[in-house]
UniProtKB/TrEMBL annotation:
The keyword Signal applies. It comes from the Eukaryota. This is Uncharacterized protein. Residues 1-17 form the signal peptide.
Length: 403
């Protein structure tokens, strides 16, 4: 049992002596300063520290470091395989990232193109046309209003013409009736008495009737205007100084009234012709205004429908622009997130590659160091130091047992 404890203590002493964390010892003063600097540098990393420790253990066990060199080389190859795998996996990540960037960029560019295209259509075509249609409809509305006003004016003018016609024909008819009545009275006077007599007998009643009829004719002709002024004056003279007994004068009066009657009849005939002409002109004017109204109404309906269509189209385009703007923002956000994630992953990848490359560099340097004669001398010195400590320990134990 005591023997086992001694062996265990010796092994502990051996392992303790193999650590190079603290490179101070009795024989360390003989280490090459350049080698010590290299060992200190290697032991700054865990893998370098491990190689140095394994080198000493291997040297103790086998008396050489060849097996360690092969093991470190194999370990290095494993690290290189890990680095290769990391780079291969990163190529996949980078390829997927590039594909996403290309896809999102393409979609964002297409959305931006769609937005610019629709805005161009909206601002250079649809809105200007809508304003143009507003002006056209406003102009057509004014034409429709003018057309309706023209209808009213034509109707009012025609009513005025017709009222004037009715009044004129009524007056002319009344005048003709009064003239006919006067002519009947005068003809009766003219036919009374002896045919060859120069004068005839006239009663007061007959004279009164004739004067009344002549005054009615005079009153009628006074409303006819200046073209009947000569007739009016002649009637005035006749009614004031008319000698109903003189057969010659009666004849002249009848001739005068017949002439006036013919003149008024011609005027009445002309009034009817004028009325017919005015009716035809009014009908033509109404047809013209009706045709114009139909054109204006059709044009207004067509342009109004176009304006409605343009309004719907503008709404659709604005909706599409809003939708594509939302799409563009979504693509840009996804692209930004993808790039941010890529940057974070790239840093992780670079850190891994850097760490592995540093490990490989440490391994390469460690392999170089452990195979140099100064390092082998360094290991032999440390082993000798450890055996010396064990020897001193055993001697001390033996001395205790002897006592």
């Amino acid at each position: 049992m005591v023997h086992h404890k001694i062996v265990l203590f010796a092994i502990i002493c051996l392992v303790s002596a193999t650590t190079v964390t603290n490179n101070q010892g009795v024989m360390d003063s003989y280490v090459n300063p350049g080698l010590q600097s290299q060992i200190d540098e290697l032991t700054q990393s865990k893998i370098g520290h491990m190689v140095i420790d394994l080198a000493e253990v291997t040297m103790r066990v086998t008396g050489a470091v060849d097996s360690l060199v092969e093991g470190v080389k194999a370990f290095g190859r494993q690290i290189e395989e890990r680095l290769k795998l990391e780079n291969t996996q990163w190529e996949v990540v980078e390829s997927e990232h590039n594909a996403k960037v290309i896809s999102l960029s393409s979609q964002a560019n297409q959305a931006e193109f769609d937005i610019n295209r629709e805005k161009k259509v909206l601002n250079s075509e649809l809105i200007p046309r809508l304003h143009e249609l507003d002006d056209i409809l406003l102009g057509l509305k004014a034409k429709q209003t003018d057309n309706a006003q023209s209808f009213k004016e034509a109707e009012a003018a025609r009513n005025t013409q017709h009222d004037s016609f009715v009044l004129t024909t009524t007056e002319f008819t009344d005048a003709l009736r009064n003239i006919d009545e006067a002519l009947d009275l005068l003809t009766d006077l003219f036919k009374s008495g002896e045919v060859r007599a120069a004068f005839i007998e006239v009663t007061d009643e007959q004279k009164h009737k004739v004067n009344k009829a002549l005054r009615q004719v005079k009153a009628n002709t006074e409303n006819f205007g200046h073209q009947y002024s000569s007739f009016i004056q002649a009637l005035t003279n006749l009614t004031e100084g008319f000698n109903f007994k003189d057969r010659q004068v009666l004849k002249e009066m009848c001739d005068f009234l017949n002439s006036l009657r013919l003149n008024i009849f011609d005027a009445l005939t002309k009034a009817y012709k004028d009325e017919d002409s005015q009716k035809q002109q009014d009908e033509l004017r109404r047809q013209q205004l009706t045709a114009e109204k139909a054109v204006f109404d059709q044009q207004y309906a067509d342009f109004y429908q176009e304006r409605e269509d343009k309004t719907v189209r503008i709404s659709d385009v604005e909706t599409m622009i809003s939708t594509r703007e939302a799409d563009l923002k979504a693509y840009q956000d996804r692209l930004r997130t993808e790039n941010n994630n890529y940057s974070a992953n790239l840093k992780i990848h670079d850190d891994i590659v850097s760490s592995v490359q540093q490990e490989l560099a440490v391994l390469a340097k460690a392999l170089q160091v452990v195979q140099t004669p100064p390092f082998l001398d360094f290991l032999n010195g440390r082993i000798a130091k450890a055996f010396l400590l064990m020897k001193i320990y055993f001697i001390h134990q033996l001395q205790k047992r002897i006592k």
